[in-house]
Amino acid sequence: MAWFEKENGPEKTTSSRTVRTEGLWIKCDVCRSTIWKKDLEANAMVCPKCNFHFKIDARNRLALLFDDQHWEEFDTDLRSTDALGFVDLRPYRERLEQAESETGLKDAVICAEGKLKGRAVVAAVMEYRFIGGSMGAVVGEKITRAIERAHDKQQPFIVVSASGGARMMEGAVSLMQLAKISSALVKLVEERLPYISVLTDPTTGGVTASYAMLGDLNIAEPGALIGFAGPRVIEQTIRQKLPKGFQRSEFLLEHGMLDAVVSRSELKEFLAQAFDFFCGPIE
Ligand SMILES: [Zn+2]
Predict the structure, then answer these.
(1) For the chain, N or C: smaller number of CB within 10 Å?
(2) From ligand 1's centre to the CA of 35, what distance in Å?
(3) Who wins on pLDDT, 20 or 112?
């Protein structure tokens, strides 16, 4: 029985090992490699073995975009009033409080201004950890204000999306944000100011159905899930099996829905070059 006990033994040592190294290693969701967390962070949360792009939060995204990790945030105090007094499994108000304490944000987007390779730009970056990056009245209002800021200051505009779509707990009010943001974007068109939409994993529902697909360039990170309805709903509706890789960045690029798939490490350079192209070099 000695060997048998030995086989069982590692359970104890494994758990003690887990305790000691907890949080230091991360397993890649795709290639299953074990990666040292510090290495992963140094590589902008992209797997060095298979290029899988882990989700990153809005603040880390801003740090990757803006020079010297410096930016100014706007409209940080806007918060949902829960106009419908909505309750599903839990009251919406409770979900908001929880999201706020988990993220330190009052809603699912950060709007900021800063320099990208020396050029002043306005960016709205969505926070997926805040109720699935869903778009309610606050997200709609903040993005609209960010567009107006870009317009008034004559600066290019970027949105980095990470969203499950419209926020169901705000009902029709959340759907109105699609139209509101879309019409605000027309102001940028009139001024010939570029808007680049960056779609990250996942970008779905009402966000895909509005501003995420309205960029002068619509670009995505590799392997991102991008779509309107989920694959199961589509399969049931059209009664057909969907092709492999359906609703992933590469598939969408191949079928003309995206202009480019850009790795996280190349994103800043790509944006800088695109703005040089649209606006001319920085004076
Ligand atoms: Zn990997």
Answers:
(1) C
(2) 8
(3) 112
